[in-house]
Amino acid sequence: MSRHVLERVLHQLSVDRYAKQRFKEDPEKFLDRFALDEAERRMVLGFDVLGLQRAGVNPMLTMGFWQELSPERDMRAYMKRLRPVAEGESVHAAALKQ
Amino acid sequence: MGKIVGGFLVPHDPVMFVAPEAPAPKVREKMWGAFATCAERLKALRPTSVVIVGADHYMLFGTTCLPSFLIGTGDVDGPIDALPGLRRGVIPDSSALAAHIADHGHAHGYDWAVARALTVDHAVGIPNQLIVQPLRDAGEAVGTIPVYLAAGADPYIRMKRAIELGRQIRSAVEDYPGNERVAVIGSGGISHWVGTAEMGRVNEAFDREILGYAERNDLAAIGALTDDYILANGGNGGMEIRNWACAMGALQGARGEVIAYEPVPEWVTGLGFVQLHLQ
Hints:
The complex is a heterodimer.
Chain A: H1 3-15, H2 17-25, H3 27-31, H4 38-45, H5 49-54, H6 59-69, H7 75-82
Helix pairs in contact in A: 1-2, 1-6
Chain B: E1 3-10, H1 15-18, H2 25-44, E2 49-55, E3 69-78, E4 89-91, H3 95-107, E5 113-119, H4 122-137, E6 143-149, H5 159-175, E7 181-187, H6 204-216, H7 219-223, H8 227-234, H9 241-250, E8 255-264, E9 269-277
């Protein structure tokens, strides 16, 4: 597991509009440029934010990645990936988009 | 000659802009009002320059370069992450003084990373807009000097080093030949968890501990906090108390006055506002 390259991928996807576009068009091909192993690729492609955090990735990057590019984008769904969220429980997020 | 005239410790909570109506009216009015109070009090200090000490949120700096401490010595603009009500634009700078702080640091063992033209993020952009900009709107000429400490992405600057850096900023200001009246704003905190499973938690006990150190300018106590302790009790966002510690170091010996504090889960943060009065 390389936290470093994962952070590189997520940082690029958070600040580089062109990278974001290429990821949206063909995520597999976009990731070919990086030295990711199969498990790491799966975490990125599956928006496995818990796995990414367990690999040491900065949570600010996982949150931005989720908000920018995940199919759901919703922060309640993001939190559910990290921990059980009870029905009716208020979820407060530091996300820059609501 | 340059002179430090005062300081403030304030939050830079972007959720205030994204979800302004989320907390109870009384709470949100108190928080916005605290920013306005800081602006009024800053005006009374008649500053010519304001150093704002912020933290990058893995936005400005990436995996190819993570500076421990950085100063913007030239043009300033931003914030890069403009939000509803937080506009992006050119920010008046104090480039001569900022360059002097960098030079003075280099001559005294503080190897600043330098940004010649810096687009800041909300850590500098929010205090700039809510506390400094009102002075400009009232006709005052005041420049912003952005300083970034490694508080959002590791390796984090050590707490003691942040305090020492604050002292160094003060030495540099006092060594400046021009007439500059300088305020220092520590931007961040207090407890908050960003992007983690605990996001939304606010730890009032931790917040009040830090506010106590700020009131007493207890540099020994805040400098002794370990990263493990801060992460466990203040969250990854709580690491931003480095920015407060830096400002407290620049205003060593100051009396801290808590202007306002509220734990605001809706804005995912304990929001504390402190004025540092030089004795």
